[in-house]
Amino acid sequence: MRVTGFLRGLALLFTLVTTWFFATAYFRHGSVKSVNLRSWLGSNDVPTKAAKVRNKCGNENSCPENTFAFKIISGAANVVGPSICLEGIVFMSAVKNNIDRGLNIALVNGTNGHLIKMATFDMYAGDIKDLVKFLEGINEGSLVLIASYDDPGSKMNDDARKLLTDLGSSYATKLGFRDNWVFIGGKGLKGKSPFEQYLKNDKDANKYDGWPEVLELEGCVPQKMG
Ligand SMILES: *[C@@H]1O[C@H](CO)[C@@H](O)[C@H](O)[C@H]1NC(C)=O
User: Which of 21, 35, 185, 211 is 20 to 30 Å apart from 119, CA to CA?
Assistant: First the structure.
């Protein structure tokens, strides 16, 4: 059932994409006929498009002064690893080969954006004491960037939930088996962080059989948030 539905969806998507592709190709070609004198003479149009800048971390928008551009992507099921980028630097990713199932955490100096340290915590088979110790050791003024992969919740305990909540998390209390979670918090942050997404592992709503959809969080985090 599920597989047929998936294939049907895939076929529909394929149709839509090819339709769109041919439509745009046609219209682009069509507009050549109504080309105006200016572009005929080779001025602007094309160069403007080519000059489009690539924002840090490949983000949609550029970031204002006194903020750090970030992008955090959770793992996809237990197949594709997560990634954590700040100010155009990918700290953790599958390509860097420094991620693991569980929680992937990068600590950054909230003033200058420099990496302090990175760590991964296996939340299925690991020792939760390691995570608690790591969270307790975070200094004031640190930004904490977290991406889940596969299972961020099995070994979670009250101590770890409390420490993550103190960093500004709204969902740390809920994290469970195979949920997805991306988060930026700060040590010493008063109130809740606005930079967080959470998806519960829910058989009826999951995109993949055993896991929810990938989460992607990007934007500009204020300096000194931590
Ligand atoms: C961040 O860097 C500044 C120097 O730029 C330093 O004084 C401060 O202690 C650092 N903070 C953390 C949390 O590492």
Answer: 211
What tens digit of pLDDT does each residue of 49-90 get? 545 678 999 999 999 999 999 999 998 877 789 999 999 999
Same domain, 67 and 13: no
Number of domains in the chain: 2
Q: Cα of 95 to ligand 1 centre, how many Å? A: 29
Ligand 1 centroid, distance to 110 Cα (angstroms): 8
User: Which amino acid type is present at position 64?
Assistant: P
Q: Are residues 134 and 201 in the same domain?
A: yes
Whole-number Å distance, alpha carbon 113 to ligand 1 midpoint, is: 9
Query: How buried is 17 (Cβ within 10 angstroms: 0-12 exposed, 13-18 middle, 19+ buried)?
Result: exposed
Residues 21 and 124 in one domain: no
- Indicate the pTM of the whole model: 0.76
> From the alpha carbon of 116, which atom of ligand 1 is closest?
14
- The reply to whether 140 falls in a domain is yes
| Residue at 152 is within a domain | yes
Are 165 and 194 members of one domain? Answer: yes
- Which residue's alpha carbon is at the smallest distance from atom 12 of ligand 1? 109
